[in-house]
Amino acid sequence: MVATVYDDTKAEEVLEQAVSEICNALQVLNEHGVKHVVVANASEVESIPDFNRDEEARELATKLTESFNAKLANGLDYMKKSTNLEIKAFDLNSKMKSMLSEYKSKGLNCQDACTSNIADQIGKFKENIKILLKLIFKGELDVHYNPGCSKETLKDYFFFDYFHPTAELHHEVDNEVYELI
């Protein structure tokens, strides 16, 4: 989607295609006898560390998230009417906003990434191979903490890396999805 950032028409086409693919997947599940499905909307992308310090990026992320979620809701309504699926929607966007608000109220870090992401670790070919082999054969990636963060202080951060909340927050979402089903 980065390539379509400044082209609203193209961005909307990409969002339409994404929702269409989700509906196609739901149709396939229906055709194979699946009865119960949970679908989550897009979370609050504008707050992730990769966007949260750039006003233009935040505004665009908000606009695209809202547009995608509206299109998805319409697509899910259609699928509920045209299939035998029992589709439950999980509002990940609202949950993310709620968790962010709670973290902010406790004075915890909601703006910075605690760790560098894999892209920051990639270098020359030889280093890339070492990273990939360790990931493939050991299931491990070395964690590189950003200044001010450590394994011990990770609990004070909302974001593990530039895009993802910490494991604790994932577990909180997991528990709510479990309750939904």
UniProtKB/TrEMBL annotation:
**What molecular function does GO assign, one term?**
hydrolase activity, acting on ester bonds
The highest taxon in the source lineage is Eukaryota
Q: Which InterPro entries match?
A: GDSL
Recorded protein name is (apollo) hypothetical protein
